[in-house]
Each structure stands twice: as structure tokens, then as C-alpha cells.
Write a structure and sequence with these properties.
Blueprint lengths: L2 H18 L15 H23 L11 E4 L4 E4 L7 E2 L3 E14 L22 E14 L2 E15 L13 E22 L2 E15 L5 H12 L7 E4 L6 E18 L2 E14 L4 E14 L2 E15 L2 E11 L2 E3 L2 E13 L1 H6 L10 E9 L1
Parallel strand pairs: 7-9
Antiparallel strand pairs: 1-2, 3-4, 4-5, 4-17, 5-6, 6-7, 7-8, 8-10, 10-11, 11-12, 12-13, 13-14, 14-16, 15-16, 16-17
Helix pairs in contact: 1-2
Length: 375
Amino acid sequence: MKKSHLMALMFIFSLHTLAQQGKIDLYGNEIITPTSEDKLTAAVNMGEVSTTMTKALNSSKKDCNDSKERMSLKPKNEVICFCELEAKKHPLIGALLFTEQDIATGNDNLFHGLPRLIPGFIKYDGTDYGRTFGLGTGVKFVGDKGEASVRFDSTGFGKGVNYNGSFYNPERKRNLEFTEQNTLALRLDKFWDIKADGKNRTFVEVDYVEETDKGKLAMPVQNWWHKMNGEKHAVPYNYLNHLQKDGHDVKVQIGVGKDLNLDLSKWKCLVRAEAKAGFSSKKGGVIASAKVSTVAKHRAISWLAVSLYAESLSGSEGHEKHRGLTLSFPFKANQVEIEPYLGIERHQTALDKKTEKSGANPYEPYHTLGIKIRY
């Protein structure tokens, strides 16, 4: 209970005391000025209520389960119960520990192309082909018995094409076939065999994936960014319709995982291994994957965390590989933990290979920027 709520209760109770003494008409229009003796009596009663309520707020939560769960306050034995101060339990995840919100963006250009403004750094830029730009957001509810999350990502894949004998249209915009992959992912995890050094988990995951060339999110944001930066710093594109129809896929998978908390000298690490399998509606095929990830924090550097992951997937779309490295910089502001992060990833999928610039290694690095907020 907040201090403001406590003061409000104390004030209401003092009014109630004066009303019982006939000094205040709470339901009429007449107000009788209380005497000094009346004020002193109300102050004493308020002090008794404050002391009793403060003791109740400072008492342990177990009091809600025994005979001390309720306390009587004079006069007339009004009753206040503080059991609602207990953490609310949810049927799927148990008692809610914290909520995490995440927003992120990715680009094949380092820091979205900003370093190219520095002489000599343009050679580190991407080509805007293949996995070129994306953004996403999600929310996760973490409890003591499980967690539930929902996430949406929109990722763009570009491919330069020779259209009508030229790679540029009459307005000198480069022709680009842009495929936008939009994914809505739902996941529910249940924890079991929970111990100090880790826990096991089982989970179910449902993904809806859309592939379109109509530009619902990633394409218009990329187009806006390039226009804002001007032709000197960004290439203007002529986006072409190239898909006969939009693609739709629903993936349903179940999996198991294990979390391990490791204490390695000056490093504290969380290692997670997962395996999942299910089906894809796109080609009616079975899909399966395995993923290993770790988060490491140094005891002397609380503001830095290093994360690594590697994932391998096989299914109707062939074999895929994903891996990445992330540096995050967590800090606290009051009761909220804020964690900006940046990372570098490499994705090897059929769509990456189909749209990337041809060469011995068609998979460019993909750079991420984002922020997580926990409360």
C-alpha cells in the first residue's frame, strides 16, 4: 500500500470519528465546527490507526494465512485485510516476477549506415540486398512457474534486378524486388524441476509467417529512411511487385529445454539448450531445430552482458542456420531495468540465399540495435 493511500485512509477515519461525535454532518449540508477537545480526540485516534496499519504493512506475508490475517480497528470494529498485497498468481505462469518489453531494429549496414559519413567506413556498408532491414517488438511475462510471450517482426529482403534492360527506372531509382517477411510468434513455457542451479522447461510455440511484396511495414520504413537521408547518403529504390501471390505459413512446434546457472570464477553465466519439433502448413512438412544460447556477466562489470546463440533448423524449406553475438548495457532507473543492446548476426536461409548478391559467400552480416525494459 502506498503512503498516499495510507494517508487517505487516516483522513477518512478521522472524519468518521468526528461524524460519530456529531461534529460533522457527512450526509447533509450542516458542518459543526469541532472544539479543541474534538480535534485532540481525532488526532489520538489517527495516531492509533497509523501505528496499527504500519505494523500490518511491515508484517510478513504469511500473516494472511493465519489468525492474524485480519485486524480490528476501533471504533465499530471496521476490518481491513492486507492479503491483496500478496503477488497475484496466474494459472499459466504462476506468480508474476516481472514483465519485459523489447523493441529492436536490424540492418545490413553497421549502425544503419551512419558510419558511412566517416571517410573510409563506407567499405563496411552492406549492399541492401538479401536480409537488408527489419524491426520488431515483443512483450514477455515471466512468472515463477513459467513465461508467456508474444512478438511481431517485419524483415525485408532486397534483390536488385535488370528490368526492361536496365537496373534503374527513368527517374534513376534502382530497381528492387523487395520481399517482406512478417512474423507473429506466440510462445508459452512451463518450468519444472526448479533448482538453484537451473531448471527444465517444456514449451509450445505457434508462428504465423507472411511473405509479401506489398510493403506493409519494413518496406515503407526503409523507403522513408532513404528519402530522409537523401541520394547522397542513401540509394533511392523503385520497388517492384514480383510475387504472384502472398505466401502464408503456420508453424506449430513443441519443445523441451534446460537452463543452467554456472558460476565460473569471475563470470556468472546462464546457458540454455532447447530442442523443438512440429509441422509447417506451407508444404505440410515436419520441422525440427536445436538452439544453444548463453548470457555471461562479469562480477566487476555490472553494466555489461555478453550473449551468444547458435541455432540449426531442418524442414520442408531445407536446412537453416542462425547465429549471433550481442553486447548489452543494463542499468536501473528506480524499479525499472533498462537494457540497450547491439549485436551482429548471420542468417543462412533459403530466402537469404535467393535474394542476396551472388558471390562465394552470399550471407552478409546483419546488425541489430534495440532496447529491453523490465519492470
